[in-house]
Specification:
Blueprint: H1 14-25, E1 29-34, E2 41-45, H2 46-62, E3 70-74, H3 79-89, E4 94-98, H4 104-114, E5 116-123, H5 124-130, H6 133-136, E6 142-147, H7 153-163, E7 176-181, E8 191-195, H8 196-208, E9 219-222, H9 229-242, E10 245-248, H10 255-262, E11 266-269, H11 271-288, H12 290-308, H13 315-335, E12 342-345, H14 352-360, E13 365-370, E14 377-380, E15 393-394, E16 399-403, E17 414-419, E18 426-427, H15 431-437, E19 444-452, E20 458-463, E21 468-469, E22 475-476, H16 478-485, E23 491-497, E24 505-510, H17 512-521, H18 528-531, H19 535-548, E25 560-563, H20 583-597
Parallel strand pairs: 1-10, 3-4, 3-5, 5-6, 9-10, 11-12, 12-13, 24-25
Antiparallel strand pairs: 1-2, 7-8, 8-18, 13-14, 14-15, 16-17, 17-19, 19-20, 21-22, 23-24
Helix pairs in contact: 1-9, 2-3, 2-7, 8-9, 11-12, 12-13
């Protein structure tokens, strides 16, 4: 099977995509950065960004960067991230992004493996981590700091390019635009080679899926890292293609305030953002009780009746929803800035209940599916035909096939094999790994289990490598259980374990922003190290897990729980920079404690 031939009416490389957008939207706002006072955003236009791209392209050419060379960057989302990307593309060079939170040894591996010639870093503290790399890595010639207490070296490069301009080249569509390294949950990350055509057609196809919901002037709040393929394509390349704007979140801690200042119409996010808003609101209603709780429950019931009726359940139903919308739902929309039309969400299993809630309050959360190796989008829901629980239909030019050889006991499930112009060129320097996932007919073996309904919607049911068998032979997909457990307001992180064991157990980290105040109310110590040993907290977490898993099969529900004081994070090596769980690291750190759960 191959994807149906589809002719894209648009650019075939990222240089043309950017330059055509600048021509159309030159005076429109593009990027916004929070001002020094913290009470507003300062914006720069497409034309101003393009001018800096021209200057930096000249500066990079002046230090010897040319076709096929690697330009690396270690920085969070900011003006200079995008400026450096399009300057690099305009020289036919390859762009290799890395996370500020990445471990230095992984930075070193990526820079060496990808052949970075010139490295840009955000600040002096990042420079301190990599300053010795030019002496240790063959081929790395220079490091430039974007924002420094001393000389701003990137500004010096731009000034040089202003004096010595170099016109952009137009890469062939097969040329490599960049490498995005998958966040390895085991071993070193793999460098995914993505061509200009991979990325450009992905941005164009995603834009084509949403003609009624995105247009020039639409705005996002940027907090999903552009070093991640989802953020890079959906929020940078796609946004620029249709003339959109994005304001940079100052930090994860300020997102609520930043939403109010930026007032986005579109959000590119991961499910956890919406999960936390929903569970926070639900918890607040439970605590308030009275009229607020009554109205909230009435709204949920009325919305369910409207969906069951196909969109209109009559006058009384509409009246109830109108009252609830004015008193409750409007306040939720206000937390997102008051202008949200839709959100694109990906990277974890969708929760239909939460997707339905946001649809009911007027913010459709449309789940998408893909992976770095697919540039990354392959299927997406759209607001008009959103089907919560699914990850939508293939985008233009793409197709999926279900290979049931890995799930012979199922009459519909199998490995999802993807086809389309977004399928990666391969893994850098890893021919055997490439041949394992690329099929002879041009498909990509995703490693995800799923099925397709009669209308063409894809449903993802688990990750093949993460499933395991209990002693009784029952298969378990731990991610689904973990995501459900994390819907509790009191739980920040969770890992479910049970391979070859009689039953599942769970490792849980409380959300201390919620559990701390609860402990204070209970007269308990707020110190996490002490609190995890308190019987009342243990009972609370056990009850939360039990409630979250109420609708699961009995064999799926964890019977014992290990509560840890320290959150899972990239800093302690338990999460990747894209917040994927490294199960091996959890077992490495807490293996004896997990095994002890089976002995007690």
């Amino acid at each position: 099977m191959t994807a149906a031939k589809f002719e894209f009416d648009g650019p075939e490389n990222l240089v043309d995509l950017f330059e055509q957008a600048v021509e159309k939207f030159r005076d429109n706002k593009l990027f916004g950065t929070k001002n020094g006072a913290g009470d507003g955003y300062d914006w720069i236009t497409y034309g101003q960004v393009a001018e800096r791209v021209d200057h930096l392209r000249g500066g990079l050419a002046g230090i010897g960067v040319g076709k096929g060379d690697g330009v690396g960057i270690i920085a969070d989302n900011r003006n200079e991230w995008a400026i450096a990307a399009y300057a690099t593309y305009g020289l036919g060079a390859r762009y290799i992004p890395m996370y500020e939170a990445e471990l230095p040894r992984i930075m070193k591996y990526i820079i060496s493996d990808s052949g970075v010639k010139v490295l840009l870093v955000s600040r002096d503290d990042i420079l301190e981590k990599v300053k010795d790399f030019p002496d240790e890595i063959e081929g790395l010639e220079r490091i430039y700091v974007i924002e420094s207490d001393g000389e701003n070296a990137m500004a010096r490069l731009e000034n040089s390019g202003r004096e010595n301009p170099v016109p952009s080249i137009k890469p062939n569509k097969e040329d490599i635009a960049g490498l995005i390294y998958t966040s390895g949950t085991t071993g070193n990350p793999k460098g995914v080679l993505l061509s200009h055509y991979n990325l450009t057609t992905n941005a164009l196809a995603a834009t084509m899926m949403l003609p009624n919901f995105i247009s020039a002037g639409d705005r996002s709040l940027s907090f999903l890292p552009w070093a991640h393929s989802f953020g890079q394509t959906a929020e940078l390349h796609m946004l620029i293609n249709f003339g959109g704007q994005t304001g940079f979140a100052e930090s994860p801690q300020t997102i609520v305030d930043d939403l109010a200042l930026v007032r986005p119409t579109l959000l590119v996010a991961v499910p956890r953002v919406f999960n936390k808003v929903f569970t926070g609101l639900n918890d607040k209603m439970e605590k308030q009780g009275g009229l607020a709780k009554f109205l909230f429950d009435m709204g949920l019931k009325a919305a369910a009746e409207r969906r069951a009726a196909g969109g209109d359940a009559g006058f009384l139903n509409n009246l109830k929803l109108g009252v609830v919308d004015k008193i409750v739902y409007s306040k939720v929309r206000a937390k997102f800035g008051g202008r949200m039309k839709m959100a694109l969400s990906s990277s974890a299993a969708p929760n239909p209940k939460i997707a339905e809630f946001f649809y009911d309050i007027g913010i459709p959360v449309c789940e998408a599916w893909g992976m770095t190796e697919l540039s990354p989008a392959h299927t997406v829901n759209v607001p008009e035909t959103n089907r919560p629980g699914s990850v939508g239909k293939p985008i233009p030019g793409c197709a999926v096939k279900i290979d049931r050889s890995l799930a012979p006991d199922s009459d519909r499930e199998g490995e999802v094999v993807a086809y389309g112009p977004n399928v990666m060129v391969g893994y850098h320097n890893l021919p055997e790994a490439t041949s394992e996932v690329l099929t002879a007919d041009g498909g990509l073996r995703s490693g995800d289990l799923g099925w397709v309904d009669e209308d063409g919607y894809l449903y993802i049911t688990g990750r093949i490598k993460e499933q395991y068998k209990l002693e009784n032979g029952k298969y378990v997909f731990p991610v689904d259980i973990e995501e459900t457990i994390k819907l509790s307001m009191f739980i920040d992180s969770a890992m479910v374990h049970g391979a070859n064991k009689p039953h599942n157990v769970a490792v849980v980290v409380p959300d201390w922003l919620v559990a701390g105040p609860w402990a204070q109310e209970q007269g308990l110590p707020e110190d996490p190290e002490t609190l995890v040993k308190e019987s009342r907290l243990i009972e609370l977490i056990e009850n939360e897990v039990k409630a979250a898993c109420a609708n699961m099969a009995g064999y799926e529900v964890p019977r014992k729980i290990l509560i840890l004081p320290e959150p899972f994070s990239p800093e302690n090596g338990i999460l990747t920079p894209t917040l994927k769980l490294k199960r091996r690291e959890v077992h490495k750190h807490f293996g004896s404690m997990i095994e002890a759960l089976y002995e007690s």
